[in-house]
Amino acid sequence: MKSLKENWIVKTVYAYLDLILKLFPILVLIFLFEIIWKAVAIGRTTLEEIDYFKILSNNPALLNSSNIWLVLLILLMDVIILCSLYISLRKLTAFIKNVFEENPFIEENGKYLKFVGIITIILTFIYHLSKVISMPGISLPVSFFTNLLVKLSNLIGIIFNPFLIIGMFVFVIGEIIVHAAKLKQENDLTV
Asked: 126 exposed, middle or buried (CB, 10 Å; 0-12, 13-18, 19+)?
């Protein structure tokens, strides 16, 4: 049986995650440079350019707003998402490194995966909730109840979001690895 160090999939995923982790700060700097350049060179940065993750894309009226609190909220959301992505990348890289070093069933790996699963679930929920909140009302002559039903159907759509399901799946795999590590530790102590 081949070791995990010789498995080309494990090597490829480890190299890929490590490369993304190393390039991530450069990508963030390019993102910030673009915003600052447009603000200084052009003299005006729109909210649409700051809304990097398209949180307000459902509402063009908000995108044209110059409300400073809305700008700060979007910048805060961008920073939270970027920091969460970076921390998740670090955890996933540490997980793959442990797998690469022939330690797949240790409690640390389970904690890494559980953390990544929780971050994925939280970010998915916050992102889609903010999109539903920022969604404009229906401009057709419909009742308040119909407008409420449209927003409610979008909220229900969060439950069936693939990223939410993936986050829960990764969390469960992390829990399985923690359980396997404890069983392995008990087994090693009985021998």
From this structure: middle
